[in-house]
Design a protein that fits this description.
Mean pLDDT: 88
Helix content: 55-70%
Shape: globular
Oligomer: single chain
Structural class: mainly alpha
Distance between the termini: 68 Å
Radius of gyration: 25 Å
Strand content: under 5%
Length: about 500
């Protein structure tokens, strides 16, 4: 219970500090979170198919949030509490997995590494499915590791449910089980034990409800997620940067193509542009292991201002990737015992690199890197205790070299290339839309002083002055925005609207 209580206490502190963040009770409309929010509300209001708004994502997370809304009403702090508790359970599962496969010291190290990894905490307080996938992944791995010891029908059914929900949460996780299947048949060359057919049966049975939902929603067979095939093309253009989304490289007809047509185009890119595709995947591999938190929907740096827990050295993914790769090599001698763990780590890494390298997608891989990081630290400590100087010195030097490589900011392209906006501007906009105008004004003033030729600050400041009945200042800001961004219909409409309001106020006075 000790590690679970530490995880709960960590998340209690984070929840307390998170309340100062404007996103604690506000979901921006331009995010995927907005789609999940609207879909969950629709389900809670009687739309059992949860077909409201965007339906290209697997609906499992939408149903989960919908059940919370149905029980407690649309209460975002309740969702955060549920997800933070799920994160604490993920910490506990990491501990139990390590205790089963290694030893208690490795279990403690791995669990604490995950517990204090800032991005994992951050995504437990966001309406996105990253924390759910991380939990279901560790849960299904733990159930699979335990299954051989007690393969009765209850354990088989429970394991089947865990695996089925894991795949349903994001279908590209099926790569993990493709690797497991290949290892079992090709490398291990084992016969399928009696429990396996029953396990496959339970997995398939638990697939049925969401497969029916997806079929009815899209009018054809869809393996839970409509966006999957299109994402393969969007994220693997020969000219793609290698991280983040790039709208200019989206395939125009990607959502209309069948899966075989998608794979054909994907394969032809390797045939027609072999060098460019090779460099693309080399860049993806580096960006995946690097410390850079590739933003999408939300930026990790925006959240760091509101919690000391996100500032620790364990929040640097380069540390986990460097230690994780070192532990990966350390444990290779035991691969026959650890083959499930290796399949999960490699499969989930491949599932990210095959599509998009994003901070929120990488969250789902962190439990396995935390485990291998724990292995590395434990083995280095053991070699020091055994006075194996060469072993611990070479291992430490290797991990340090990898950390320096992955933590090298000069190898990361200009942030502006992936749609960067100033942190102060983002937070300022969120404050305003959350109704916290004074805090929004302070942030936008900072941003305006830094970037005086940016129309965005003047637009937001104009809205603040408009809402606080300071029409003269609002007119001044909208006029400035109109000069900086001429021809913008929204700015011109707001300027006209504010001038009319100012005239009415003058005539009344």
């Amino acid at each position: 219970m000790a590690i679970f209580l530490i995880a709960v206490a960590t998340r209690a502190l984070y929840f307390f500090q998170y309340q100062d963040n404007p996103l604690f009770n506000y979901i921006p409309e331009h995010t995927d979170s907005h789609h999940y929010d609207i879909g969950a509300q629709s389900f809670a209001n009687g739309d059992w198919m949860a077909t409201a708004t965007v339906n290209i994502f697997s609906p499992l997370y939408k149903y989960l949030v919908g059940l919370i809304y149905l029980t407690f009403g649309r209460n975002l702090p309740i969702v955060w509490l549920f997800q933070l508790l799920m994160g604490a359970a993920t910490v506990l599962l990491i501990f139990l997995i390590c205790e089963k496969l290694f030893n208690q010291r490795t279990a403690w190290i791995s669990a604490l590494l995950y517990n204090f990894h800032g991005p994992a905490l951050m995504y437990e307080g966001i309406l996105l499915r990253a924390s759910l996938i991380a939990f279901l992944g560790t849960l299904s791995l733990y159930l699979l590791i335990r299954l051989p010891a007690k393969p009765d029908w209850w354990q088989v059914m429970l394991t089947g449910l865990g695996i089925s929900l894991f795949i349903q949460s994001r279908p590209n996780t099926i790569l993990v089980f493709a690797l497991i299947f290949l290892y079992w048949l090709v490398i291990a060359r084992r016969k399928i034990p009696p429990a396996k057919p029953r396990l496959f049966l339970w997995i398939g049975l638990f697939f049925i409800p969401l497969l029916i939902q997806a079929g009815l929603t899209h009018g054809k067979f869809v393996f839970f997620e409509f966006s999957g095939p299109a994402s393969i093309l969007h994220g693997n253009h020969p000219e793609h940067l290698g991280m983040g989304h790039s709208a200019e490289h989206h395939h125009p007809n990607a959502y209309q193509l069948s899966f075989p047509e998608t794979l054909k185009i994907f394969a032809m890119r390797f045939v027609e542009h072999p060098q460019a595709m090779a460099f693309l995947f080399a860049r993806k591999l580096y960006f995946f292991f690097s410390s850079f938190q590739v933003p999408n929907n939300f930026d990790f740096n925006l959240f760091k201002d509101f919690s000391i827990l996100l500032h620790g050295p364990l929040s640097n993914f380069a540390l986990l990737s460097a230690l994780g790769l070192t532990g990966f090599v350390f444990a290779l001698r035991e691969h026959q015992k650890l083959w499930l763990l290796y399949c999960y780590a490699i499969g989930m890494t491949g599932a990210v690199i095959l599509f998009f390298v994003l901070a929120r997608y990488r969250i789902t891989v962190i439990p396995y890197f935390a485990i291998f990081s724990g292995v590395a630290v434990d083995r280095i400590i053991q070699s020091i205790q055994d006075r194996q100087t060469l072993k611990w010195a070479s291992s430490t030097a290797s991990a340090l070299a990898l950390f320096l490589l992955f933590n090298n900011s000069s190898l990361i392209p200009d942030f502006k290339l992936i749609g960067h906006k100033s942190y102060d501007q983002r937070i300022g906009e969120y404050y305003v839309r959350a109704g916290r105008l004074a805090e929004g004004h302070a942030r936008m003033t900072i941003f305006q002083n830094q970037f005086p030729n940016d129309a965005g600050a003047s637009k937001v400041l104009g809205m603040i002055y408009q809402q606080t009945n300071q029409q003269r200042k609002a007119v001044k800001e909208f006029e400035r925005a109109d000069r900086l961004e001429p021809g913008n219909a929204w700015i011109q409409m707001k300027l006209l609207e504010t001038k009319e309001k100012l005239k009415r106020d003058i005539s009344i006075n």
